[in-house]
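Troubleshooting log. The previous structure file for this entry was overwritten by mistake, so regenerating from the original sequence record. Sequence copied from the archived sheet and checked twice against the printout by T.R.
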Amino acid sequence: MTTTVVQSFTGNGPKIITVKSISPLRKVSDPLPAPPTILDTIADPVFVTDIRGAWVYANDACCNLLGCSRDSLLGQQDNALLAKSGLDTLKQLQQQAFTTQTGQEQEIALRNGKDEVRILSVKISVQAEQGQSLLMTHVLRDITRRVEAEQRLQQESRRERLLGAIAKHLLQSIRPENLLECSMEELRRFLEADRVLFYSLRPSRTGVIAEAVADDQYSLKGILLDQTCFDASQLDEYRHGHIQIAEDLDNCDLPDEQRVYLKAVNVQSHIAIPVVQETTLLGLICVHDCSHPRPWRQWEVEALRDVATQVGSAIAQADLYTQVRKLNAELETQVEQRTRQLQQALDFEATLKRITDRVRDSLDESQILQTAVEELTGVLGAKGSNTALYDLEQGTSTIYYEYNESLPPYQGRVAQMEAFPEVYHQLLDGQYFQFCSKEPNPVRGHVAMFACPIRDDRGVLGDLWLINEKDYEFEEQEIRLVQQVANQCAIAIRQARLYQAAQAQVKELERLNHLKDDFLSTVSHELRTPVTSMRVALQLLGVTLNQELNLNDELQKPKVSQNRVARYYQVLREECEREISLINDLLDLQRLDGGNHPITPQRINLQSWLVGIVNGFHERAQSREQVLSIHLPDELPQVVSDQASLERIFVELLNNACKYTPPGSAISVTAVVEQEDQVNITVSNSGVEISPAELPRIFDKFYRVPSSDPWKQGGTGLGLALVQKLLWHIGGHIEVVSKSSKTSFMVTLPTDMTLAL
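Regenerated output below.
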């Protein structure tokens, strides 16, 4: 047996193999030896050929492989059987073996007796000796399973690389267009196809949206198939995972419309894999081979299924990401819009407060309108603005103020309301409106305008106009701000008008008061002269009566009270003194109002001075059955004040107390020192109470509390007014409290009038 080392080149690369010859060389003329039975026991098929290629031996395994008898094989060279089985492909290898005198090895596809294709590894060894013929021994080994396993591993590896590459693209790009383009290109390279495309069936975007195409083929991107290519049943099949396969377009069962379409784009072989996410059909992955019909192998179909699943998940994920981004964008837009609205609201609120503060303190209508127009134009960015006031009696609207930079002036223009009823009817009804001029204004051109009435609860006072570009639309917040500003303007204007009316009334009252004071002063002076003369005459008459009727000079009463002349004299004397007192009160009030009342400050001992004042009213109080008392502290400070004014103050308070205190009630005078520089003296009387409605008016001139004079003495109502003014004049003040059937007048005096003033 001879051993030969042979280097063989196969589809899997170079291999070093050892070929062992199985028989010595023999001459061709020698008879064939008996078949070696040992070769029949070998599981691998073996056959031997001579130099002519004729079979000289075949073992049982070889006969079983080819499905024929040994006799039919021996002596054969090139018959139909060998061609059918595929053994004729060994001719070139056999020739190479004879030429090189070395063993050869090759893998071939052989069709066995069952018409099955098997992959065999053929090893050829050459046996030759000098002077003898050559024989070649062929050893066949079935490697179909190994080759199939290797192919499956290669296919699985390629499939995993494909899915990995697509997954990488999916991770790198979340946009559906990008990931589909990359996926189609990877799939085209994997299948070595002419064209791979994604046909979208989504309502939002239908047609070829991604494609990978060979250089010698034209693109179908953007092509939209007729809907007749997809009937309802076909779409339903796709939705349930049906795969459309056409290995040869000339011999396949496809809808006529689709076949025409594929033929038009030069497609020879076609496969369509549906991309389904849950129950939604997203589209189709279509693979085209344009050069020849192509059988689609199962592993290619499975790879397409995996890619379709991955693409479907990626599209769903991309849709979700897009939806999230859209929601985020909408949320950001809403947040920005809300922030802008809040900022605008804050700016508007600040503007409104600023306008309110400025117009609230202003009593000038022009200043109020100017402030509103300038502030609104600035904060709203308006092109211009103006404001007008109405004269409803005349039916006119006058522009009092305007603010603009580029528009022509209209200030001072007077418009007749009846000339523009469509505008002023709405404004007079309290309605705001905005509009764009249909025809361009000769001066302003095309502009957008907003009109708002200036109104309050009493009616419309005027209007406020804002002017902007023709495409501008005033927003709700802007309209609300203009309305609020207009309301504030209405309040301020009404307040200004009320103030002006009040000032006019005050001036008129002051004029009347001056006239009254002048009249009273004149009358008082004119009355004082005759009354003084009457007083002198009464004094002379009293002396005469005293001499003739023996009157008591001390009491100025006649000794004979029944004397009628003496009684008449007494009435004249009392009424004259009363008239003089009234005239003096009027003149003193006039001097106090004019600020020319004479004051002579001097130091006064209140302790003894108050007692002397009160003692002068004891007889009067006893005659009216009133109890008069005085309560002073042991040490009452001296005061520096005008003694004449103080005397008039307390005499008037005691006169009122005696006048309004009913019989059996009490009158008291008390003094306390609560602060070092003040003395509080209170004159109180019981049995009488002033109603709360009357208290604020008791210090008014000529005011008398009705139905509160039990002695029916009458009066002028000047006493308390004179008391209050005298106290103000010397730096003091007076308060009154009336409750629980008791009325108290509390006088506060400074200890030093000169310092208080």
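Residues 476-549 form the longest helix (74 residues). Archived copy saved in two places this time.
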